[in-house]
Amino acid sequence: MEMKSDKLLVKKYGNRRLYDTARSAYVTLADVAEIIRNGTEVEVVDADTKEDVTSFILTQIVLEQARKKDALLPPELLHLIIRHGGNVLQEFFEKYLQHIITNYLEFRKVADDQFSRWVDLQSDYSDMARKTMEGLAAGHPFIGTFPNPPGGKKK
To answer: Does the residue 12 lie in any domain?
Structure first.
């Protein structure tokens, strides 16, 4: 199993084929996407030049997914990327976008967990309210049998 820095090494050949060095098999972009979804980081190198082409291949995967789902990014944003691409947006993507997405995913997990606890709590309160009402209904015949409290009004 050929790994580099705890990343799966995939070789890209001139015929655009991708080779998974761990499984010793050719893979598709969809296969690489699934490997990444399963939590493994991937490094893609050109088999001839040894150049790191990971960003290029990952971008292809994102664009392929967008094509299948009709759109990943709104056209307005894509126009901005093309118009101001290069250095201006590269800094944004490198420094901020990763943090934004990571924070969003963490927030979403916390919000989902909190919502789940609220649902459980509501279920517990509903159960307690039902038991309380049953207890009150069972004690109802006794309420009229006690004499008036001292200083209370007589009926």
So the answer is: yes
